[in-house]
Design goal:
Blueprint (H helix, E strand, L loop, with lengths): L1 H21 L13 E2 L6 H4 L1 E2 L7 H10 L8 E6 L13 E6 L5 H9 L16 E6 L9 E5 L11 H11 L3 E9 L6 H12 L4 E6 L2 H4 L10 E2 H18 L14 E4 L1 E7 L2 E3 L1 H12 L4 H9 L1
Parallel strand pairs: 4-6, 4-7, 7-8, 8-10
Antiparallel strand pairs: 1-9, 2-10, 3-5, 5-6, 11-12
Helix pairs in contact: 3-9
The structure holds guanosine-5'-triphosphate and magnesium ion (MG).
């Protein structure tokens, strides 16, 4: 009993002394770092890389955002197809397709672009198993202005016939204006991506690169981006974009065909800049409209003439 009491009192003493040393001083909120920038203040020129094209201005971004505002007639699911020969051929609306390795974030990005959870997403690769077409900008009784295609991913957990079916589709589809190829910013270009890029050049299919999940480059943890991002991480992103340029636009003397568009976009479908607006999505919307030839210039010239 005596031994027990002595031990207990020794333990208690040690515990109190540890507590005394570890008692936290009242927490003070660190002053905001002068080098951090709010997500809302980042422009497409900060996040993307435009060398053959011009970064969209505020008016163009607003025009694109307006066309994607969800309504009763937009977005709408138009069709799903697992085989090229089952895709409807009669449609005339301009189409853009979203491709990339499984799990790169295609369906999540499309949900962010369309402002609605209309595509299935999953943390497991191989979720999207068919081509899914969505119409945007439709009105009552009117056709959609543009069609977005969510494609099954290639690579891990993809179907073995992926390459054949999708390349057949991309080559044969007259309505296709551009294919957006997503590259995971955390993993960079993998062999499978390089193979696909080569095929796009060989068949001269117009394509553009989007770097996805850039929250992983901008911060260690996604929630840290809420307090803004540092200049250092923006510079890191810029470095990645510059390194990608010669890979996606190889030397014409060694390349089999035309490279990607000289404009790399970035996004983080999981990070909101403001309620309902994901990081980088406005610039992607503008590029979709540019690819489809809907750039608002008609509206602008009409306004100027009136
Ligand atoms: N950190 C982070 N995770 C993301 C982002 N976008 C998507 N994800 C996550 O990545 C996983 C895959 O997303 P999906 O959109 O289903 O990817 P997918 O490319 O359509 O995948 P498949 O249909 O399987 O080819 C999900 O767990 C998403 O939550 C992002 O911007 N940042
Ligand atoms: Mg998917």
């Amino acid at each position: 009993m005596l031994i027990y009491t002595c031990r207990e009192s020794g333990l208690t003493r040690r515990l109190f002394s540890t507590l005394r040393h570890n008692t936290p001083t009242p927490r003070q909120t660190p002053p905001p770092s002068p080098n951090k920038r709010n997500l809302e203040d980042l422009t497409p020129s900060d996040l993307c890389y435009y060398w053959d094209t011009k970064a969209p201005n505020a008016g163009q971004l607003a025009f694109a955002d307006k066309l994607f505002i969800p309504s009763r007639h937009s977005p709408i699911k138009l069709w799903s197809a697992s085989k090229f020969r089952t895709t409807p051929l009669s449609s005339i609306e301009p189409e853009v397709a979203f491709l990339g390795r499984s799990n790169v974030g295609k369906s999540s990005l499309l949900n962010a672009i369309m402002g609605q959870e209309i595509c299935w997403t999953s943390s497991k690769p191989g979720r999207t198993r068919e081509m899914n077409a969505f119409g945007i900008g439709g009105t009552k009784g009117g056709e959609s202005k543009i069609v977005l295609l969510d494609m099954p991913g290639y690579g891990k957990a993809s179907r073995s016939e992926w390459g054949m079916e999708i390349m057949k589709y991309l080559q044969g589809r007259k309505q296709l204006r551009r294919a957006f190829i997503l590259i995971d910013s955390e993993h960079g270009i993998k062999q499978k991506d390089a193979d696909i890029l080569k095929l796009f050049r060989r068949y001269a299919i117009p394509h553009q690169i989007i770097l996805s999940k850039i929250d992983k480059v901008l911060a260690k943890k996604k929630k840290q981006t809420k307090t803004g991002v540092s200049d250092v991480s923006i510079q890191r992103l810029r470095g990645m974009l510059q390194d990608l340029k010669p890979v996606i636009q190889p030397d014409p003397y060694v390349s089999e065909g035309p490279g990607a568009l000289g404009e790399i976009l970035t996004c983080s479908a999981d990070v909101e800049v403001s309620p309902g607006r994901a990081l980088g999505v406005d610039a992607i919307r503008w590029s979709i409209l540019s690819a489809a030839g809907i750039d608002g210039s008609l509206e602008e010239s009409r306004l100027a003439g009136s």
